[in-house]
Amino acid sequence: MPITEIEGRKLTLTHLERILYPRTGTTKGELVHYYATIAPALLPHLRGRPLSFLRAPSGVDATSFFAKRPPAGTPSWVTTSVTERSSGEEMEQVQINDLATLVWAANLACIELHVPQWKAAAPGTADRLVFDLDPGEDRTVVDCCAVALLLRERMRADGIESWAKTSGSKGLHLYAPLTGASPEQAAAYAKALAKELEADHPDQVVSRMTKNLRTEKIFIDWSQNSAKKTTAAPYTVRARATPTVSTPVSWDEIEECDDPGRLSFTIADVPDRVADHGDLLAPLLERKRAGKLPS
């Protein structure tokens, strides 16, 4: 088993040849390499946030499971924090604050990385707003783009700027940096905007999760602003049939999208995109861009 040293931390990497994506033949070694390569763009979006992982140790076609607690054998140098569950029980969770921890997690086949819209140091403060645009039956990410543009303009009317990424599946995520808001306030604002767009564009938008209401519409999921919810992190790989990535995209790409394939990216595509364009979600990290929710 290869042993590597990263930032002074020794790691034993195991079963790198194991195929995690049978359709493409993508191995765990390639997953680890992707996360190590994309770390400079990814880590700023993870630091200080408690992680939830989707693990698929035997590959995406086998059993996968979500994990929140640190697994047995977690190194002592991995940063953890304590969060409170809805039951009132306290739970320890991992933070990925550095490259060594990211590679350690990838070696455990933690394929998907999910984070809340708050940091462990301030669980009562929402530092960003998120909308998850999910296409219903007979709709695609192209239709999500049209709704994303509506949401962008509606938020701008309240002085809130937003940026976008693909979900890594079928939809889009819109983010806006916030200041002076609680998760409850962020969720209430997001819900109000989703309902407003549903009222104004009933043939395009639905704000309720009920499956039979979502056919031929885009569901605006506002609920991921809740303190108890998480969203797939920027640059996370997804446990789909192929190793797609939740990828930041420009507003020009959204405006020009006329084919779902134009906004589908894998671990083979994303490092070159970042090399060419930088982190398109970097403005999300700039506090000077943070908006205030209307009172």
UniProtKB/TrEMBL annotation:
The organism's place on the tree of life at top rank: Bacteria
In its keyword annotation, does this UniProt entry include Ligase?
A: yes
Per the UniProt entry, what species is this protein from, by scientific name?
Answer: Streptomyces fildesensis
- State one molecular function term (GO): DNA ligase (ATP) activity
Output the InterPro entries linked to this UniProt entry: LigD_pol_dom (IPR014145), MtLigD_Pol-like (IPR033649), NHEJ_LigD (IPR052171)
Q: Which residues form the DNA ligase D polymerase domain?
A: 27-280
What's the source species' lineage? Answer: Bacteria, Bacillati, Actinomycetota, Actinomycetes, Kitasatosporales
Top enzyme class: ligase
Q: Which Pfam families match?
A: LigD_Prim-Pol (PF21686)
Keywords for the protein's UniProt record, in alphabetical order: Ligase
User: What EC numbers are recorded for this enzyme?
Assistant: 6.5.1.1
The record's PANTHER family line, in alphabetical order, gives: BIFUNCTIONAL NON-HOMOLOGOUS END JOINING PROTEIN LIGD
Q: What protein name does the entry list?
A: Non-homologous end-joining DNA ligase
